[in-house]
Amino acid sequence: MAAFETTRPAPFGAISIFRFVQFVSDAFLSLSNWNDARVTRKALGNLTDRELDDIGLCRGDIEMIGR
């Protein structure tokens, strides 16, 4: 019965490239989430007090929901 070594070191630079791609991906995701919250706050801010009351919100809730 033969035993094989299956673990190999990563190629030179592969880990650095992976971390850079992960950083860019995380930055893009954070920017996307921030923009979604901004759009939500803006849309809710444009509603009248009566419309907000119809959906069970008040002006003070807008900032909390945007987060």
TrEMBL record:
It comes from the Bacteria. InterPro entries: YjiS-like. Residues 30-63 form the YjiS-like domain. This is YjiS-like domain-containing protein. It comes from Paragemmobacter aquarius.
